[in-house]
Amino acid sequence: MAHPGVSRRYFFFGALLGGAVPAAGFGSVASLKALGYKPFYNKLNVAAIGCGGRGEAILKEAAATENIVALCDVDTARAASELKARNTLNQYKDFRVMLDKEGKNIEACTIAVPDFMHATIALACMQRGIHVYLEKPLTRTPWEARLLRDAAAKYKVATQMGNQGFSHESHRVAAEIVWSGEIGEVTEAHVSCTPGTHPTGLQALPPEESAPDTLDWNLWLGNAAMRPFSSHYVPYNWRGFYDFGTGQVGNWATHTAGPVHHALQLGAPDSIECLSQVNASKYTFPDRGVIRLDFPARGGMPPVKVFYHDSAKVGEPEAWKVPGMENERILPPPDNLSDKGRPMGRPRGSGSGGPPRPAAPRPTQPNGQPWGAGGPGVRVFGSGRGTPAPGVLTGNGSVMVGTKGMIATCDRGEGVWLLPSARWQEYRLPPQLLTRSPGHMADFVRAAKGGDPACSDFSIAGPYAEWLAMIGIAYRAPGKLQWDAKNLRFTNSAEANKYVKPVFRAGWELKL
Question: Quick one: CATH architecture of 13-165?
Fold first, then answer.
């Protein structure tokens, strides 16, 4: 099929062209210094806050090219591997003490801690002029996302959210296909994710236990109100609790919604509404649900309705049946651009590093019932590593519906194709408009040394995180919520407005 060409109305460059070499070039040390660049053979001094789990993975990615100078983790058992391997470095439990003592020697920091502490730690770093690589989902609330966007601009530091899909080839190709006009005007999109392994639908809080000596529970709580320790919060189950995490929204929708957000140039929605939820809870995210967001027209793009299918399963009403695709496999396999001469693989920082994480325990509630209906489960990717039913959107992926066709992506954006798949077979890829990524961490390092902004710089990640964080609010506040983005408030729900900004423990309040 001959490609129809690139429609001017979709010709958007913006900050997501991160990775382009500055016009002045990197030709000499003198020119670099004159422009404020750090020579690339000079290593950044990097500290790590959060050194276990995902923190270990991004720490290793940074250490592959840069100089690690200090480590911080409130849980020495969780971080034991890295703390032992780098035992010659100064090590801390309190990030504030580390920044006070080491701040002048730290140029960049990787941050991988529970969601509710992201903004607090990132802001403290940026206020000291430290470049920040912050794991997804950026923040737990819309207010914090706006704060980090504004802080990055005020303190003029390089930033990157750790949503590695923004660096994948298929993610960028998906945007280029949409902008080419191949599927016409997109007025509807669907985003899906698998069930998580954290608790959902919890009807009572877990019982109090004694905290282990290896964990500083007070420091772990940080800006949150004091509560009794329970092993059911750590090291991973915190993700399911509204007070601490963002559920599958932050765990996977941050990835699967990425191609939709980028290709459709989404800003702030006009409204958001919970259409359904199973096993609602005032403590945790539900077992599954469907959320609708309505976005206004953006430039030449028409208004679009975006549906989020949380933990959708085959046979359940939350799984969207794609019209006219009853016999189609909906989500593509990963790296399927290799067949078109555009292999991506997994560059350093693409999310493939680090040790595998075991399934988190699923303890019972005090009433003897299990936490949530999902069970411990096995992560099934939308890319076909499970056996999804034909014609149904399940797993981790997205579908954009246009007036002339559909496009689907899988996982973090590792795969892309047109629907029906027969249309994809002879399809020729459009011209490359976006620059290509050297890898998500490398993209950040380049920005920290004076290169162009990274592809998920907070000027981009902030607005994206704002609307994602609204999903958790829609689960708790009923009705169609009208959003006033300028003033960061809902115009028709006092209940919803209670969740826009966190309630901070005394002494932990945030301000630019």
Answer: 3-Layer(aba) Sandwich (3.40)
